[in-house]
């Protein structure tokens, strides 16, 4: 489609793992297995929490929402990436690219905010145990989730509108396996520094503010736990936060490297493999950490499996 002497881009080519043609089939097999484990693990977490009344408390309510968000997050990127590993031409329409970016940024932002809400839940549980059932009631928990998701998608829609309002009239090869911010900014014909600053500020607001809120929660938690007289009591209090802390470190570590690091040059090889960590490893890590380190989930999972086993025998 022409406009004067310029060609308006109507579709993008996702470079993906094209620099490693000999690895595409092995990567397809490995990523497919990781994806199936991710889906299965998060579905098991959601089902186990829903079926066991002992897990009907705010901490596991937030965990089930996080698991559902991780499933949607994976569905937005990984199926198309797997298909592209088997194709010769990996194209995505202009609208499809914008939709993928909007969903990715919205779900990633929602995950950041949900982790912050989970940090607040741990703070109330440990620092205000007597008031915990009153403060963290079902109505408030639902509002916190709704606000987190709504705010995340307001930011993601704003960022996507800024990016796709730029003129794309030249190269259309995206140096990535999905439509992400930095590689698309490199393809814009004219640099909009104000727009880029707006995108960076919105990303920073979501990532940094969520992380600082979690950090404040854990400073208050540590202050309370250190006042517990017994070592066993301190260990028990910290153990309730261990799973959440592991997920927080991995999630925000990856997000910080990608979105808050220097933007000097977007290198395909480096960015592609770093991005695998937050698009595949993080969603996979969530169910593994909470199932392997959380005794309540382990007990509930064993009960659910025993019920299924008994039903099959009857």
CATH architecture: Up-down Bundle
The gyration radius over C-alpha positions equals 22 Å
What strand order characterises the main sheet?
Answer: 4-3-5
% residues in beta strands: under 5%
The major beta sheet can be summarized as: 3 strands, mixed
Mean pLDDT: 83
Structural class: mainly alpha
CATH class label: Mainly Alpha
Number of strands: 5
User: In DSSP terms, counting alpha (H) and pi (I) runs of 4 or more, how many helices?
Assistant: 10
Any low-confidence stretches, pLDDT <50, length ≥5?
A: 1-5
Detailed description of the structure:
By secondary structure, the protein is mainly α. It has one domain (2-313): Up-down Bundle (Rhopdopsin 7-helix transmembrane proteins). The protein is 75% helix and 4% strand. The chain has helices spanning 24-51, 58-85, 94-127, 132-135, 138-164, 181-187, 193-225, 231-259, 268-293, 295-313, and strands at 2-3, 6-7, 11-14, 91-93, 173-174. A three-stranded mixed sheet has the order 4-3-5. A two-stranded antiparallel sheet has the order 1-2. A hairpin with a 2-residue loop joins β1 (2-3) and β2 (6-7). The radius of gyration is 22 Å and the shape is globular. Mean pLDDT is 83; it is low at 1-5.
């Amino acid at each position: 489609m022409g406009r004067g002497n310029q060609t308006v881009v109507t579709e993008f080519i996702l470079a993906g793992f094209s620099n490693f043609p000999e690895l595409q089939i092995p990567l397809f097999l490995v990523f497919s297995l990781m994806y199936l484990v991710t889906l299965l693990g998060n579905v098991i977490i959601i089902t186990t929490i829903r079926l066991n009344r002992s897990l009907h408390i705010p901490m596991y309510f937030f965990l089930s929402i996080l698991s559902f968000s991780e499933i949607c997050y994976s569905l937005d990127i990984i199926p198309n990436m797997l298909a592209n590993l088997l194709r010769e031409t990996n194209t995505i329409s202009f609208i499809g690219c914008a939709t993928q970016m909007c969903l990715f940024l919205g779900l990633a932002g929602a995950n950041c905010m949900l982790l912050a809400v989970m940090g607040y839940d741990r703070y109330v549980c440990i620092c205000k145990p007597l008031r915990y059932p009153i403060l963290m009631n079902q109505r408030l928990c639902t509002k916190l989730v709704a606000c987190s998701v709504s705010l995340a998608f307001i930011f993601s829609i704003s960022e996507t509108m800024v990016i796709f309002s730029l003129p794309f009239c030249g190269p259309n090869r995206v140096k990535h396996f999905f439509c992400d911010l930095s590689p698309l900014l490199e393809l814009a014909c004219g640099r909009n520094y104000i727009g880029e600053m707006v995108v960076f500020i919105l990303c920073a607001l979501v990532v940094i503010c969520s992380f600082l809120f979690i950090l404040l929660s854990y400073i208050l938690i540590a202050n309370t736990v250190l006042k517990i007289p017994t070592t066993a009591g301190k260990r028990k209090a910290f153990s309730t936060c261990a799973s959440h802390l592991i997920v927080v470190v991995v999630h925000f570590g990856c997000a910080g490297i990608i979105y808050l690091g220097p933007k000097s040059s977007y290198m395909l090889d480096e960015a592609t493999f770093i991005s695998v960590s937050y698009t595949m490893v993080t969603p996979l890590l969530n169910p593994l950490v909470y199932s392997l380190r959380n005794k309540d989930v382990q007990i509930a999972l064993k009960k659910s499996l025993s019920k299924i086993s008994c039903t099959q025998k009857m």
